[in-house]
Amino acid sequence: MHRLPTFLAAALLLPASPLLSQTPAPYSEQTLADMAKLQQAAVHGDYAYQQVAHLANNIGPRLSGSSQAQKAVEYVAAELKALGLEVTLEPCMVPRWVRGEETAVLTQYPGQAEGTTQKIVLTALGPSVATPPEGLTAPVLSVNDFHELNALGRDKVAGKIVLLNHAFDERMASQGQGGQAYGQAVIYRAIGPSTAARLGAVATLVRSVGGGANRLPHTGQTRYAPDAPKVPAAAVTAEDADLLAALTAQGPVTMHLVLTPQTLPDAPSFNVIGDLKGSEHPEQVVIVSGHLDSWDLGTGAIDDGAGVAVSMEVAHLVKSLGLHPRRTIRVVAWMSEENGSAGARQYAKDHAAEAADHFAAMESDLGADHPLGVGYVGRADTRELLAPVADVLAANGAGLLQTVAQAGADIGPLADLHVPTFEPIQDSRTYFNYHHTAADTLDKIDPHALGENAAVMAVTAYALANLEVPLPR
Amino acid sequence: MHRLPTFLAAALLLPASPLLSQTPAPYSEQTLADMAKLQQAAVHGDYAYQQVAHLANNIGPRLSGSSQAQKAVEYVAAELKALGLEVTLEPCMVPRWVRGEETAVLTQYPGQAEGTTQKIVLTALGPSVATPPEGLTAPVLSVNDFHELNALGRDKVAGKIVLLNHAFDERMASQGQGGQAYGQAVIYRAIGPSTAARLGAVATLVRSVGGGANRLPHTGQTRYAPDAPKVPAAAVTAEDADLLAALTAQGPVTMHLVLTPQTLPDAPSFNVIGDLKGSEHPEQVVIVSGHLDSWDLGTGAIDDGAGVAVSMEVAHLVKSLGLHPRRTIRVVAWMSEENGSAGARQYAKDHAAEAADHFAAMESDLGADHPLGVGYVGRADTRELLAPVADVLAANGAGLLQTVAQAGADIGPLADLHVPTFEPIQDSRTYFNYHHTAADTLDKIDPHALGENAAVMAVTAYALANLEVPLPR
After folding, report:
1. What is the per-residue pLDDT for A16?
2. B363 classed as catalytic
3. β-bridge mates for residue A264, sequence order
């Protein structure tokens, strides 16, 4: 039994769909009315903006294991308590990596003025190892991709600082496929350092994974392979990658590279959990979440203060409007997404026995620009259950329903336990210009668009928490 | 006697204008044909791009008095000699200011996590004095403009680090009025530090003068007034200005500021002069120019490697096409525009006696984006003499003729001696996003648009060098 899609029912001038179907209506009339109220309150509210402003401006960068991350845990916990939620800090151990000095200069290059060097702008990738404190000096080898690197082989690569100059596809991103563009390029950041190290590279540079052209290096995580030497790894800006490619094409280029990050012992930290208990099925939870940690270069406004803020806003709105969801709405501020999602993995482990009671999980982790709708990982018949959600969200231009290839990083471990996952589909055209850079700051967030994201989270989560039928798993 | 504007003649289907007039035609048929050839050669050429690529990538930043500036002098002189020009290095003494360490952290602010600080991104203005080597620590006071600052008075300002948070008008710039927007905001950079120092400020920060939002500080020159204490002066990014304004509105904010630039004794340097001698009036010169020095953060591609490159291209094109201008075309690469135009002032002084023989002067110093046409400072009747130039340049969309309020910085001293001045009118919508930042790099130049700028310089200069009538002065 399938309901007609609502747009088709409208086109045929048919009466409302429940008449066509033997299945119960997925949402009560009251729930539908409350969803509309939540949508309006969200787009006109400013609680979410106040939250992300505090996280970004007052607390600042929140790298896992840092004092700021701990302050953020305490802050979010206190705010959720003030909303009347049942708040728990769930412990997890997180990586503790601390950026150090990071400088690079070219000490030899074609056309060099006597006695001078040229500055190269870069930033260490987490969890890069350090160079010697005084730095290392080596010839630079620039390649466009793994194919070129492998073709050169150990003879040409050994002893070199290797630049993997693979460009983020800005045209793809500019057409709304930022996530796809990121996915294509990020492989160089993820496995490039170990790939080059296996061929004898003494350090690896990657072209920043992201758009824009503002001499901003984009940090991010690299993954050292167990079978490769760990070499210092950094991202250069697009401009500096171009410069290195141009100069190495002309003649020998030598770089002096200093990176002095430290990897400290894992540190205790927390996921912040705030429950707004369900009136009928308190044991069943619908998660709304973002990650509380951020990279250290900016202030973590779009990645992902915004996601935490709109999740907090869901609870704030439901409470403000005096609504009582049938299932529990659980706000989660995840810890350490940027450094490997230790918090999310710990949560999935700790709550594995309750997986069946995790009715659904949402995460917002693609910034705060205008949302187009709701993305979901799940069975095709999820779509018709979301149609009324889309109808409500169409009021702020977020009526699109789309399957997505995989769940957000922090709810991925729950998806692996067959929990259905949902997310706002944000306009990501500029997201990757700022993502993981010093320019991830509060001004990148438009308060109105943030409210629209809060609407997506609140309406979807509330609908799921009140769904009258099971969600396909 | 006025010629009809050419577009009007065309509309009326009248024959070519010389028939309508008793005055001699301003350009011979041969000159008009050669102008058209120059236009085509310029837009299809790549000499200018090769020049700016070398200046930006191989030589790099060229702050006055630096080794790179000297290398650039030698490079441009050699290139002009290779083109067959008579090359002279004309000495000038230039300021020598060297950037040092520049860091700022907030040591106290509302919501601060225990034991942490927040980083503020800034860069010293030239020729800022230094803080003590260990830095200075003081409360931050943020004001939006001079009115607010003066209203607070010495009681509130003394002992503070003052932020002058006056925003560059990005909407104005986005509508093609970048120069106007710059002019409105730059006053804060120019006189802000001394204005605040007179009220007892211990250091002055200005919001970066420029657009974009990429956490890029824009350096530039400040002017210490003789009657004010010299206090350290820096530009913060737009993001950091917003942050400081937000935090100071909430409670006390304290900054630890370290700026260690040095002002060294003035250094000998040079304007590079290359003459392509006129066939009839070698003593009369038409200058084509840009400034060879740059700020030190980027590589001086758009400010103003491009201006030097298109000026060199004028000589290259005239030589390549085997043309022989009636007057001398003089290529000038000015030194030290950024630090007060010492080179241009010296030139005007040295050549004051020949002012009458300076037939015209052009400078390109507003980047390298698509040119819309030719701007000029001069009498209204200059316009009709330029009409055939505009007709030729219309082939690359640069047919606009417009008076401009003042001559370019380096040809201003010549304008003061009544030399008519001309300049390309560039699309400046993004120029001030990169200007004086680390992101003034080669990738900001589109080779085709650079060729269009070379066309404006070459066609205009060649027309002036062959003008059959006097130019109104």
Report:
1. 44
2. no
3. A96
Residues in chain B, pLDDT under 70: 1-23
Q: Do A439 and B215 touch (CB under 8 A)?
A: yes
- pLDDT tens-digit profile of B137-180? 999 999 999 999 999 999 999 999 999 999 999 999 999 999 99
The tokens describing A259, both together, are 């990176």
* B100-260 is classed CATH 3.40.50.12160: no
Query: What pLDDT was estimated at residue A363?
Result: 98
Q: Say whether residue A368 is in contact with chain B using an 8 A CB cutoff.
A: no
Task: Say whether residue B469 is in contact with chain A using an 8 A CB cutoff.
Answer: no
**Inter-chain residue contact A238 with B111, CB threshold 8 Å:** no
Over residues B206-242, the pLDDT tens digits come to 999 999 889 999 999 999 999 999 999 999 999 999 9
The ranges assigned to domains in chain A are 6-96+265-465, 100-260
Residue B424 near residue B374 (C-beta atoms within 8 A)? yes
Out of B110, B239, B441, the one facing A239 most closely (by C-beta) is B441
Q: What is the DSSP string of B19-45?
A: GG-SSPPSS-HHHHHHHHHHHHHHHH-
Nearest to A214 among B115, B118, B439 (CB): B439
- The pLDDT of residue A378 is 76
Which among B163, B159, B97, B154 is positioned nearest to B130, based on CA atoms? Answer: B97
Angle at A201 between CA A200 and CA A207, to 5 degrees: 150
ipTM for the whole complex: 0.91
Q: Between B100 and A13, where is the model more confident?
A: B100
B213 and A298 in contact by Cβ < 8 A? no
- Phi and psi at A259, nearest 5°, equal -135, 120
**Lookup: tokens for B195:** 């204005």
β-strands B203-207, B161-164 pairing: parallel
For A97, A331, A398, B383, B442, the CA distances from B458, given in Å and listed in that order, are 56, 65, 53, 18, 22
Using an 8 Å CB-CB cutoff, list chain B residues near A72. 113
Q: A6-96+265-465, which class in CATH?
A: alpha beta
- Helices then strands, counting H and E runs in chain B, come out as 14, 16
pLDDT surpassing 60 at residue A177: yes
Max CA pair span of chain B: 84
Please give the pLDDT value at position B22.
Answer: 59
Quick one: pLDDT at residue A132? 98
Interface of A with B in 205-224 (CB under 8 A): 212-216
Query: Which CATH topology does B6-97+265-465 take?
Result: Aminopeptidase (3.40.630)
Nearest CA-CA distance, residue B272 and chain A, Å:
17
A-chain residues near B243 (CB < 8 A): 57, 299, 441-442
Predicted local confidence at residue B114, as pLDDT: 85
pLDDT score for B18: 45
Q: Pick from B96, B306, B98, B340: which is nearest to B223 by CA?
A: B340
Question: A379 or B356: which carries more pLDDT confidence?
Answer: B356
A70, A113, A247 ranked by CB distance to B71: nearest = A113
Q: What does the pLDDT read at residue B23?
A: 67
Residue A233 near residue A196 (C-beta atoms within 8 A): no
